[in-house]
Write a structure and sequence with these properties.
241 residues, alpha/beta, two-stranded antiparallel sheet, 10 helices, globular
Length: 241
């Protein structure tokens, strides 16, 4: 039986580099957008960097902590213009530069999302697809709320649900973070079902940033702007033992 790695991640605003690395290591990726927004884990925050160091961009999402990700909406208060101005100020905006290319792409996706329905998850989805396409990932991409089989696993405990989703796509391995493996996954249940649990072990490689002191695991935006495609792939995949 051929090995098939499945990873599952919730939507994230301008996701960190480890998020992208996990998808690149997977044969199947499931965007888990049919669960509640968890503001504590930083889904609505992104970290970038300028000459003075790390800068945090926070997206205002309306609704309380119980709002579902596929229903969560951006606040209508002009936050997107502030974020674009910040990115231009941090990275520059010269004609023909990677900074201008990627800031323009992000702004375009923002404008489409806001004009369409101001929904958080579709924006994250649209941007993630653009990034993965740029990096050449050719795996199977699934959006949970749009897949009947994945939606049918709702209501089970988180560990069982991750196992069931992995099995739906014929996964032999479930790739997750260390916290998931330590805090809530039932490893015995995975083993009994013949599914191996892989724990992501990515170590960020240093590269030249706008700030003097290297800031690890910033938003993928930092990597897209500061590195060529080949350099970014080497930083991501090359950081995996």
């Amino acid at each position: 039986m051929a090995r098939k790695i499945v990873s599952i991640y919730q939507p994230c605003y301008l996701p960190p580099m480890h998020y992208i690395e996990r998808v690149l290591q997977s044969d199947v990726f499931v965007l888990l957008d049919d669960v509640q927004l968890n503001r504590r884990v930083g889904q609505a925050r992104a970290h970038v960097a300028g000459k003075q160091g790390r800068v945090t961009l926070t997206v205002p999402v309306v609704g309380g902590n119980r709002v579902m990700l596929d229903e969560a909406q951006f606040a209508d208060n002009g936050w997107e213009r502030k974020h674009i101005r910040t990115l231009k100020g941090l990275y520059g905006y010269k004609e023909g530069s990677r900074a201008k290319e990627w800031i323009d792409k992000i702004e375009e996706i923002m404008k489409i999302a806001i004009a369409r329905d101001r929904l958080f998850s579709p924006f994250c989805d649209d941007l993630l697809r653009v990034v993965l396409d740029y990096l050449g990932w050719q795996g199977q991409y699934i959006v949970a709320s749009k897949d009947e089989l994945v939606s049918g696993t709702k209501g089970t405990d988180p560990s069982t649900r991750m196992l069931e989703i992995t099995k739906i796509f014929g996964g032999t391995d479930y790739l997750c973070g260390a916290k998931a493996a330590e805090q809530y996954l039932n490893l015995d249940e995975f083993e009994q079902n013949g599914v191996n649990v892989l724990v992501q072990n990515w170590k960020p490689r240093e590269y030249k940033q706008k700030c003097k002191t290297f800031e690890p695991n910033l938003s993928i935006v930092d990597g897209l702007i500061m590195l060529s495609r080949e350099e970014l792939l080497e930083s991501l995949i090359g950081g995996s033992p």
